[in-house]
């Protein structure tokens, strides 16, 4: 057993990260039912899809500022305040009586997500370093997707009873609040504002450009990826699979695959390399989207999203690991906020990009475009990273062995 998993701080950070997947995907099985409930609103088809990504808009706007605040004010208070906002805003869909009011509550939820995500990402950099940091980010992604598997499949069952019931799952944040408050202490700060033990972590030359590359890649990845939670439930309905539990199973297959790959990714990145890791992930994503465009059954849809989850499990840890590894300790909060903002901006823009494609090309055509987009991203990122200078004391994608740290 990895000794890292004996550290309660690691579990606290994994649970905090797990909440972020709930901010969007948990209500995916509810979308058709919510659209039917508010069918008298002519904007319901677009607004119900925006319920998935509305938190992402606020996160994209707020996360860089939230990250900067965690560098100035500490990590713990923003995290705990974010949990409270998350619980209150997340459960509001249980009782609000218009689609516009629910959309507003989803925007407010984004404030809580921004505080939680930037604080916990910065704490990963403060508490852990070297290989442990890379492995924890893999475990964190696994916990996020296992949580998503449980939450989305549960939401599918709840949505088959009432489209509003999945909003109750957001109340888990209130239950986790005492545990996280107990196991996540404020890191000791040094005179420069960094974690005391991390003062030895020098920034890589040109770290700003590397952070920009990873942020852009993350944002574009999620523009395409979020066609899955926002469009697949309707795609399944068009194929005759109208039971909300089908959407839960398809999303669950994706999250299970992503969880497994996230655990493995920390161990296979040294073999795949700094370019091979994201390229392999993108090719798996492309295969998944291609299968979605060709398949017409529940097993094929589940296989498709399993490929998508596998690809995301390889790519996702790469973005934040790269950014944290090259960044000076005093700027980790800001950088985690920037990468977070890029990811969530991509999520918000996704339905605005995919819905016109669905309207003109149908679901199969839109998923085919997504597959081509991931192939293009694989090529562009490979060329961009090849032109970047090799890191000196720290790898861009693979944390250096302890013996190399001075």
From TrEMBL:
User: Which segments constitute the Major facilitator superfamily (MFS) profile domain?
Assistant: 1-388
Transmembrane stretches in the record are 49-67, 79-96, 102-124, 136-161, 167-185, 206-228, 248-268, 300-321, 333-353, 365-385
**InterPro entries referenced in this protein's UniProt entry, alphabetically:** MFS, MFS_dom, MFS_Efflux_Transporters, MFS_trans_sf
Q: What is its main location?
A: membrane
Q: How does it sit in the membrane?
A: Multi-pass membrane protein
Which Pfam family, just one, is annotated for this protein? Answer: MFS_1
Q: Which domain of life is it from?
A: Bacteria
Keyword terms of this UniProt record: Cell membrane, Membrane, Transmembrane, Transmembrane helix
Please state where this protein is localized.
Cell membrane
What protein name applies here? MFS transporter
Originating organism? Paracoccus onchidii
